[in-house]
Amino acid sequence: MEKTESGWKKKLSPEQYRVLREKGTEAPFSGKYDALFDSGSYKCAACGSVLFNSDTKYDSGCGWPAFFAANAGSIKTQDDNSFGMRRIEVMCKRCGSHLGHVFDDGPRDKGGKRYCINSLALSFEKS
Fold first, then answer.
1. Domains of the chain, each with CATH number or no CATH
2. N or C: where does the chain have the smaller number of CB atoms within 10 Å of the terminal CB?
3. Which long-range contacts (C-beta less than 8 Å, at least 24 apart) are formed by 27-32?
């Protein structure tokens, strides 16, 4: 998906632009989807690609929406060594927007992954 940065600035709120395009992070427990457990799909707020299903969301207590699995082919990852930390960044495969990070401390019976995703990077469609 090709879009200029000025195009993204027109489409996204300033807060969404900071998270999605500048790899920012929202404050913990501030996002509107952290405590939402309705049935539906979580989409990339930038391009609308379906990233996570509600049946993979769980309450990790971390302060951001957490999922134990992403939809097949919807995300890509890369090493993130910013701020003196070693993490794995999660991005939308379709538009390349920053979503959050994935960690290996998720539910063991579900594969052990915790996709820690910014609410500002998501939109939700109820089913």
1. 5-23+33-126 (2.170.150.20)
2. C
3. 27/63, 28/62, 28/63, 28/64, 29/63, 30/63, 30/119, 31/64, 31/65, 31/118, 31/119, 31/120, 32/119
